[in-house]
UniProtKB/TrEMBL annotation:
A Pfam family that the UniProt record links to this protein: HHH
The protein's name in its UniProt record: Adenine DNA glycosylase
Entry's cofactor comment: Binds 1 [4Fe-4S] cluster.
Keywords carried by this UniProt record: 4Fe-4S, DNA damage, DNA repair, Glycosidase, Hydrolase, Iron, Iron-sulfur, Metal-binding
Domain of life: Bacteria
EC number: 3.2.2.31
GO MF annotation: an example: oxidized purine DNA binding
Domain HhH-GPD: start-end pairs: 35-186
Organism, scientific name: Winogradskyella sediminis
Catalytic reaction list: Hydrolyzes free adenine bases from 7,8-dihydro-8-oxoguanine:adenine mismatched double-stranded DNA, leaving an apurinic site
Cofactors (names): [4Fe-4S] cluster
Length: 346
């Protein structure tokens, strides 16, 4: 029995029942694939259901406001995925007259869609023979064939794609692609896979050579940078505060946050006073201020660790662009900010 047949047989018995597997609608499949980028199924499933419920068609998503989409996405992280989702929905509606791209080549034209996502949608929605290569597939192939080429090197990316393309079942590309991804997710897991119940235990090179814990090989990640954030939580007598939209590119673009001052290290109350934050808000009469958290709240992103302090600043009144504190939860904000809002209670 060849590799693809054995994999499909395993899938027919062991696959999880998931809503995006019950449809060939490319919009729903696209939604699921974008949500599941950098996200596990358990975490992504409630978001998928929420998006399908609120935006049942690509037309609904296209006409929605970016703020409402980011709010619904809140907590998933990697917010560029949500912005790209909205951009592509408008492209499909405005440029393609609502007709979803129906092949790998045209799917690549959608913002936020790369080789893997285009292959997944093309094969699952349209049965196109386009092999997927995601983290699960890299792991399965590197272990089964005993390949130690780094999966995030240019050579590895090319070689694994070529190998995947030779293995895909051309008669059942949709089923095969879902099978190999599912196999990597629940059987050939990153840590401590149960090789004793694996259908490939007798032919897996990693098991034969005791390299299961070694493969796949990945080049070291980009160096993590450390930043120090000081959020200014203004509160006036009218129960208003300042909440700003991040317009610069990078993390949290178009999300909302309290006014931010970045420092070179974690500040004490005395050092914060020397920072003279009032210079940044000359029109605001400060009555008093205090530190909410003595110990930095460390928020870890893929390439950044944010050491954060929240400073509670009592003021007499705020500018006209201030918002009511009770409306804070209506705005999309990073988890770091939304968690503070919930915990502080105002």
């Amino acid at each position: 029995m060849d590799f693809s047949t054995k994999l499909i047989n395993w899938y027919s018995v062991n696959k999880r029942e998931l809503p995006w597997r019950e449809t060939r609608n490319p919009y729903y499949i696209w939604l699921s694939e974008i949500i599941l980028q950098q996200t596990q199924v358990k975490q992504g499933l409630p978001y998928y259901n929420a998006f399908v419920s609120k935006f049942p068609t690509v037309f609904d998503l296209a006409k929605a406001s970016e703020t409402s989409i980011l709010k619904l996405w809140q907590g998933l992280g990697y917010y560029s995925r949500a912005r790209n989702l909205h951009h592509s929905a408008k492209y499909i509606v405005d440029t393609l007259d609502g007709k979803f791209p129906d092949n790998y080549k045209d799917l690549l034209k959608l913002k936020g869609v790369g080789d893997y996502t285009a292959s997944a949608i093309a094969s699952i929605a349209y049965n196109e023979v386009a092999a997927v290569v995601d983290g699960n597939v890299y792991r399965v192939l590197s272990r089964y064939f005993g390949i130690d080429t780094p999966i995030n090197s240019s050579t590895g990316i090319k070689d694994f794609k070529t190998l995947a393309s030779t293995l895909i079942n051309t008669n059942q590309p949709a089923t095969y692609n879902q099978a190999i991804m599912e196999f990597g997710a629940i059987q050939c897991k990153p840590k401590n896979p149960d090789c004793t119940v694996c259908p490939f235990q007798d032919s897996c090179m990693a098991r034969k050579n005791q390299m299961v814990d070694v493969l796949p090989v990945k080049l070291k990640k980009t160096k993590v940078t450390v930043k120090y954030f000081n959020f200014l939580v203004f509160i006036d007598h009218h129960k208003k505060t300042l909440f700003e939209k991040r317009t610069t590119k990078g993390i949290w673009q178009h999300l909302y946050q309290f006014p931010l001052i970045e420092s070179k290290k974690s500040l004490t109350a005395e050092e914060f006073q020397l920072l003279n934050f009032k210079e940044h808000y000359l029109e605001i009469e400060v009555l008093d201020y205090s530190l909410y958290n003595e110990v930095d709240i460390v928020h870890k992103l893929s390439h950044q660790h944010l050491h954060t302090k929240f400073w509670i600043i009592d003021v007499k009144s705020l500018p006209k662009d201030a918002i009511l504190i009770k409306s804070l939860t209506k705005y999309p904000s990073p988890v770091l900010i939304s968690d503070f809002i919930e915990q502080f209670g105002f």
